[in-house]
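Sequence of Alpha-tubulin suppressor protein Aats1 (Aspergillus tubingensis).
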Amino acid sequence: MPLYAFGSNGSGQLGLSHTEDVSVPTKCLFDDEQYHRTASSSSSNTPTISRIAAGGNHTLVLFSDGRVYAAGCNEDGRCGGRLPSGSGDGDGEVVRFRRVVVNTSDGDGGGGGDGDMGKEGEERFTDVSATWEATFLVAGRKVYVLGTGGRGELGVGEGKTSLKEGVGCIEFEDKVISIASGMGHTVVVLEGGRVYGWGGGRKGQLGAKGKEVKVAWEPVRIDEEIGFRATGAACGREFTVVVGDREKGEFVVLGSSGDKWGVMSGVKEPVGCFQGIQTSWHGVYVHCSDGRVVSWGRDDRGQLPPREMGVVKGLAVGSEHVLGLVDGRTVVACGWGEHGNCGPKTDAQGNVKGVCCQIPLPDGVGEVVGLGAGCATSWVITRD
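Predicted 3D structure, token representation.
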């Protein structure tokens, strides 16, 4: 399952073995024998890429068998441990995707992460997310935390702002079925429907409790004010969308009613049942069951898809740009593309605004089966 990337790459977060931005999809590189065996297998049981999560300068790739790979800035261990001396990856950067294994040797997830823990390491995960400088890895009732966060982003206790020498762990009463992060806050949904969040809460992104404390250094429960059983969530920069029954069209936006981008009240047309909801920093994007994209929020750089995007099979929303999968060979983009994340053709301001730009795929690329988008980064998942 070859993965291609384009966009911002100043810390090697595209996994291309260098730190230069690229504007056309380029094949990612993986330092792992198991990945290469998987990629060359034609078996119907071959693991697939199930999620791509991106922080400000790092990227996480989750496979359906629970393996996670990371690339990008690693000065604080957010990619899974301190780099060994002489690794060849440069100054705290992982420029090829590397397998993430967290150390649990001390029994509570607080050990030093060196990226190779054998029997004492957690190797398989069910979900991942990333704030600007931190990584979150879900395993059952536990969320493992790597990296840095100056205002409660880590969720592991008041005043705890860095995990440079190890990994933190948050444990809940039920299995975590969904996790989502914005730039500075994270929300988890548990199997029983409870919702917890931590990090910045001043703008109401963590509900009334979060707004009261302003910074939640540890998880606070926020589902009491939602009104339905939660099944998932998505996080913008300063707001959160909690999702319920998709067939019933259930969702609620938590945030500030004074938001100038209209995130709280900007929806202009019926949504109905939907496949999923994603968020940019300042926008909400509903992929409806009929393939339409209903979106609202900030649009000064063309972040909201024009009507010409039409019905799409797949959707990926980044910080300020959007990708749509029209068919197995056609990927389109719109929004802020200054780093090449919307392809090689933008206007003088680096935008693809009011139109959709088709992304040129390299010769020999197989069927496109999925998309990903992060902080000025774009991803195309293919099948040989």
